[in-house]
Structure formats: C-alpha cells, structure tokens
Amino acid sequence: MTELPFRRLLLVHAHPDDESINNGATMARYAAEGVHVTLVTCTLGERGEVIPPELAHLTGAALGEHRLRELTAAMGELGVTDFRLLGGAGRYGDSGMMGLADNDDPGCFWQADVDEAAARLVEVIREVRPQVLVTYDPDGGYGHPDHIQTHRVATRAAELAAAEGRPIAKVYWNRVPRATAEKAFAGLREDLPRTPFDRAAGLDDVPGVVDDERVTTEIDGTAYAAAKAAAMRAHATQITVAEPYFALSNGLAQPVLTTEHYELVDGGSGRVRETDLFDGMEEGS
Ligand SMILES: [Zn+2]
Prior knowledge:
The protein contains six helices and twelve strands. The protein has 285 residues and is an alpha/beta fold.
C-alpha cells in the first residue's frame, strides 16, 4: 500500500447511512484536509425499512446490494475513498430492531462472536494504523442491536490492537449535547409548517444525546453542510432530506447537525472542548 498521510481516522458504524447522519461533516472536512479517512460498516442494513414507494420492492439481499451502492455514492459526496464492510460485504447480517426474531438469526451481527469480528477489524487497524477511532457508546446510541455490537467489536478491536503494540491514541463516542439538540429542535418546531414533514421528532429520537459536560469535542463542519446533506440524500431508501432537516422511515423531522460532537473516552490531554479529533498530536511525535 502507498504511504498513508500522517493523520488517520477510523470510523466504525453499524449500517450504511449511520456514518453520514452522525459524522458526515466530520468525514468530509477531514478528507478535504488530507486526513486518511477509513469507514468500516458492519452490516449492509438489509432489514432497514425502505421509504420511497418505488424502491419498496427491495428487501433482503437485494436491499443490501442497493444500500452498498447508496453508501458508495455517499462516500463520493464526502470525498472518502477508503470504505469497507467488516469481513467483506454480506459477512454479517443486519440484526433488525431489538426484540425481533431477526435478532436470533445465526448469521446476524448480534449473534457474531465479538472476538472473531474484532479480529477482522484489527486487520484494518494493522493496515491503516489510525490514531483516532470513532464509534458509538455502549448502548449503541439508541439500543439497536447492531449499534451495540458495533460498540463492542470496535472497543475489543482497540484492546486487541493495543495488546499487539498498535494502540489507537484516541477513542471517541458519537454524541449530541442536550443544549445543542434542544436549540436545533426549537428551530425545527418553528419551521415545521414550511417543511415537507408533518411532525417533528423529539430528543428521545436522537442517538447519543447527553448532558453538555460530557461532550469533549466539537467539529465545526458548517463548510461541509452541503456535502453532508448530499451524502444523506444518497441513502435514499433510508432518509428523506429537506435541508436543513431530514426524516428517517418514521417520517419525523430532525435537524441535520453540521457541527458534530464527540466524547473522548480514551487517550488525549483532557483539554475541555477540543475542536480537532487530532488535538495533541504532532507530526513526528
Ligand atoms: Zn444504524
């Protein structure tokens, strides 16, 4: 492999579309700044609900293939060239929402052996040697089995990599500060009559909302708002975008957040409110 740039960022997500919703502005910004951005997505999301009626015929493997094409288009919008499916496309099945019989499917990601799946992620870490890892909190942000399992696998992979002498300097969880979310939702409720959406989501519908004190890092992706919206729009089976708002299959409007937030959970200097995931790292260090 050709020599990688000094700064290398790894993001681990559950389904195609999670990366654009959570980190689209961050990914676009770092890619534009010459950082090597690697996305690992754990499943193809083939149990996702399809929004557009003209695509409603897509289910199972056909939906998975379609969502891989959507992911490819979204990465084009964000300028990210290194994106992979954990273990190869289709290795781990979508587990469906928590509590469904789908969770018991032996091929689904929820049933995967964490160490085995983490070993596959370690292969990527050996190749890319990221200094920064971004993933979900232990609840997966909102309790979806694939998101919880993504947290477990990413965390285990970081441990295994450290044990073989390849520690990842900083580990972050995706977050939305409560005050930021409240402000954005207040604006949304005012604008709602001027949007194509009938109802607004609530704070409970947003993954990863926490009290502001827990948020350590704020990435201003305002300049990449259009790229983020375009990437989200590329996931047309899952997301309806009407900037600066969007809705998932439940039809409830949410703000597209272009300043993205993180909680540093491992490594770093402990400085309050960093504005760079690579804060504290200098070339040659
Ligand atoms: Zn997801």
